[in-house]
Amino acid sequence: MSGTNRRRITSKELAKLAGVSSATISRAFSPDSRIGSATRDRILAVAREYGYQPNAIARSLNNQRSRLVALVVNAIGNPCEAEEQQLLVHRLQARQLLPILLCCADHSDRLQLMRLASTYQVDHVVIFSDMVSMQDAVDIFHTTRPIIVSFEPLENEDVSNVRIDGSVGAGEIIDKIVGDGKRRFAYLAGTKSSWIDKLRRKWFADALARHGLAFEAEAFGDYSYDSGFKEAVLLLHRSKVDAIICGNDVMAIGARDAARRVLGKNTPEDIAIVGQDGIAMAGWDCNDLTTLSLDHAAFMDAVVEVIERHEAGDEGPHSITLTCTPRWGSTA
Amino acid sequence: MSGTNRRRITSKELAKLAGVSSATISRAFSPDSRIGSATRDRILAVAREYGYQPNAIARSLNNQRSRLVALVVNAIGNPCEAEEQQLLVHRLQARQLLPILLCCADHSDRLQLMRLASTYQVDHVVIFSDMVSMQDAVDIFHTTRPIIVSFEPLENEDVSNVRIDGSVGAGEIIDKIVGDGKRRFAYLAGTKSSWIDKLRRKWFADALARHGLAFEAEAFGDYSYDSGFKEAVLLLHRSKVDAIICGNDVMAIGARDAARRVLGKNTPEDIAIVGQDGIAMAGWDCNDLTTLSLDHAAFMDAVVEVIERHEAGDEGPHSITLTCTPRWGSTA
DNA sequence: TTCGTTTGTGTAATCGTTTGCACAACAATA
DNA sequence: TATTGTTGTGCAAACGATTACACAAACGAA
Fold first, then answer.
1. Least confidently predicted of A50-64, A151-165, A318-332
2. Which CATH number fits domain A68-164+296-321: 3.40.50.2300, 3.30.200.20, 3.30.70.1230, 3.40.50.1820?
3. What value does the mean pLDDT of chain A take?
4. Cβ of B105 and A86 within 8 Å?
């Protein structure tokens, strides 16, 4: 009930109250273990009365399984990651797995943070952040069943991963824009160091190459609206591009606003602007962005699929590849 | 190094390797404990060599302190919560506290979820969600140092909390809009059942009352853009309001788009639209929303302040109140 | 009746730390 | 030299569960 007692009751104490041994208490809470159903019912009743719940920390120590999952992300504030995390957290919760969030943005010491999480004996690790090297992650979590990485830089490691391939979708988008008469492309990257971003850029660069074109200008932001706005202004002042491919949707919205407000250019007539991610906001009436979109639900299904295989004892490595598709808006 | 050994080395094993007892290993990792500095250095060196880190699960069991913090939120996808969570997670990480995320949206069984988290002996709980009753939270986490609730329905409980008061700011916004000649107000609520939303509505209703006005129409959404859009359309079709106060910024953006696109009404001339939260997106050039804004950083500072007092052993209850201020845009 | 099997329960070891207590070595003091 | 203090270390008992093993009771079959 609304007990205000500070201390939690232990299985040994409950055992005394129910007139059994603590082993029997434990069995009452394990779905398939040899125990009389009368005993179980009685124990569960007494447990409810005294608010007893088995201590997960103690259980984890004994089991060698914590049912904790470390989620290594860049920034929750980024809508794309937020949408994905939301979906993943729900899927984990449905499986009685609890997510521990590690946020790598800003100047936190990422390695130390991962080391800290690893001391909690997490059962799984999902790396979304491209700010940590895969090798560091593998080293630090060497004891955890091999980690899952969300993107894949090369086919180098024997690490389970979920890979995103947008090359085909990027091709379709470039075809359309070139078909509309645009020839002078710029790439507005998420970050300078991100390998994810380098891969994504390559999808579009390859598609351009098939038309005998290449990026005329480059700029680097930080995945934020403000950086998209600011870099687009600079870009459009120093070169005469008529199409900008952006590292994500939020930057694309920033770039669109910059083009419209500062340069007086409209999409798609004066300039084509393309985002990446396919976040919900891109589809809002006020944005209506053309974007290379990923099915986030399918993405997270894939992540969970790998986790479940690991749970089942099949350590893989497993690899699942997903593709991105264009979502057409009025900006390109 | 890049060891691929599955099992983690224990303090007892390391003790053998270093020629000491496991107690000494433990002391080497405790900042202020009686241990010779030569011994400590040697142990730390050997530990690094074999990749030893103390097992936090075992430590938690012994210490009765897990350094885990449960964050009970509605939805990470909601930008306002995402921004706040981001700030909070950083502050926690800086204190070597790890956040466990409980996401209450959708149809997950919130109570069971909280019970699950409570078995992990979390040191603190922060309730952001208004989908769980405070009483449930207090009951389930009765063993944890009293929980922190982000808003406060009434002065009813002896629970530490951080309270948001927007009454003054809401008054300023209403004054401005009434001064601009608007008289017919609607409230587009976040949800029907949320007590947070009821409080927020009251701030504006009280301000209207001072002008001898009241809300002429009401509608209920779910804090999403789509619900803001849809409900605004219905609202504007069935009543002749010239000002809409929305439950959050995202719905306000949806309402603004609906007014513009479906009804052909512009802000602020034809209709005033006001948001709440003060998320970054509200300030984007394409939105430029007038909103009752909260300083999220100060908010999270306050949450951490309470956590730190609890950590220091002062269980309070503590209460901190923050106020909201208008952020003027072009929609009102 | 007697033996083998099934069922339900208790005993005790284990998971990997931390920490109170005891004690040896050594330094400082009288 | 004998007497205190101070340091550094080990021993062993927690912390709160789970589970292999042992065993008694109940049951069916011969």
1. A151-165
2. 3.40.50.2300
3. 91
4. yes
pLDDT at A2: 38
Q: How far apart are CA B166 and CA B159, in angstroms?
A: 21
Query: What tokens were used for A3?
Result: 């007990």
Distance CA A117, CA A108 (A): 14
Q: Answer for the pair B271, B233: CB distance below 8 angstroms, yes or no.
A: no
Q: What is the CA radius of gyration of chain B?
A: 25
Residue type, A63: N
Domain A11-54 has CATH 3.10.450.590: no
DSSP B251-282: HHHHHHHHHHHTS---TTTT-EEEEEE--GGG
Query: A232 near A254, Cβ under 8 Å?
Result: yes
Q: Which two tokens stand for residue A90?
A: 């729900």
What is the percent of chain B with per-residue pLDDT over 90, rounded to a whole number?
76
Where in chain A do CATH 1.10.260.40 domains reside? 11-54
Residues 37-56 of A with CB under 7 A from strand C: 37-39
Which three-class secondary structure state does DSSP give residue B312?
Answer: coil
Angstrom distances, CA of residue B19 to CA of B8, B22, B31, B46, B48: 19, 10, 21, 11, 16
Select from B315, B312, B297, B299 the least CA-distant residue to B147.
Answer: B315
Torsions phi, psi of A254, nearest 5? Answer: -60, -45
Asked if omega into B99 is within 30° of 0 (cis), the reply is no
Please report the pLDDT score of residue A3 as a whole number: 42
What are A301-319's pLDDT values in tens digits? 999 999 999 998 888 788 8
- Contacts across the A-B interface (CB distance below 8 Å): 174
CA distance B135 to chain A (A): 8
From residues 59-98 of A, which are strand C contacts by CB within 7 A?
A: 61-62, 64
Our measurement of CA A124 to C1' D18, in angstroms, reads: 22
Closest CA in chain B for residue A70: B100
**Which structure tokens are listed for A196?**
């994810």
Nearest Cα to A290, choosing from A264, A272, A266, A313? Answer: A272
Domain with CATH 3.40.50.2300 in chain A: 68-164+296-321, 167-293
Q: Which residue of B has its CA nearest to A261?
A: B285
Domain at B68-165+296-323, CATH homologous superfamily = Response regulator (3.40.50.2300)
Q: Using CA atoms, how far apart are residues B28 and B98, in angstroms rounded to an integer?
A: 23
Q: Characterize the bridge pairing of strands A243-246 and A185-189.
A: parallel
Give contacts of A65 with chain B, Cβ < 8 Å: none
Helix axes B56-63, A56-63, angle to 10 degrees: 140
Asked whether the beta carbons of A234 and A177 are under 8 A apart, the reply is no
Domain A167-293 fold: Rossmann fold (3.40.50)
HSE (side-chain half, CA atoms, 13 Å) at B62: 7
CB-CB neighbors (< 8 A) of A118 in chain B: 53
d(CA A99, CA A97): 7
Answer for the pair B234, B219: CB distance below 8 angstroms, yes or no.
Answer: yes
Q: Which chain D positions come under 7 Å from a protein C-beta?
A: 7-12, 14-20
The alpha-carbon radius of gyration of chain A (Å, integer) is 25
DSSP state of A281: G
Instruction: Please compute the mean of the pLDDT values over residues A85-110 and round it to a whole number.
Output: 91
Q: Which has the minimum average pLDDT: A77-91, A100-114, B202-216, B283-297?
A: A100-114
How far is it, in rounded angstroms, from Cα A123 to Cα A186?
A: 43
Return positions of chain C under 7 A from a protein CB.
7-12, 14-20
Residue of A nearest to B136 (CA): A2
